[in-house]
Amino acid sequence: MTNSIILLTDLAAEASGYTISVVSIIVVFLSLTVLVLIFTAIPKLLEMKIKSNIKKTGVTEVAPNINMEADINVAIAMGLHMYFNELHDEESNIITIHNAPKQYSPWSSKIYGVQNQPLKK
């Protein structure tokens, strides 16, 4: 009888562990889906707000899209590339190892080792 009671309590403890695991996984995925929905809705809400502001002000013309030629885009990209690559110094890529002289330290001294144990009387 006591073995069956212990078995049932063990099963209940394991089931609560599985329950916690399943609930935590569900909570994580639900929160991720909510975040995805929020992040996809923000641009749409901003666009609707901009359109409503344009209607309120009464402006009928919207600024046209700016189309730049390819060579201008290439020049800007090359300038940014050169600027960001100049932030780092040029290194020689040579690794040198210098042996430092060892200073005396009582922590590594051998005279306080195992051989100098107090005498028992």
Q: How would you explain this protein's 3D organization?
A:
By secondary structure, the protein is an all-alpha fold. The chain has 2 helices and no strands. It has helices at 2-57, 70-85. The protein is flat and about 105 Å long. The mean pLDDT is 79.
Q: Gist?
A:
The protein has 121 residues and is mainly α.
What tags apply to this protein structure?
121 residues, mainly alpha, flat
Helix and strand topology:
Elements: H1 2-57, H2 70-85
- What fraction strand? under 5%
Structural class: mainly alpha
Count of alpha and pi helical runs? 2
Sketch the topology as an H/E string, one letter per element: HH
* Gross morphology: flat
Flag low-confidence runs.
Answer: none
Q: Distance between the terminal alpha carbons, to the nearest Å?
A: 61 Å
Oligomeric category: single chain
| Radius of gyration, CA atoms, in whole angstroms | 36 Å
The average pLDDT value, as a whole number, equals 79
Tell me about the largest β-sheet: none
Tally of strands? 0
Question: Helical residue percent?
Answer: 55-70%
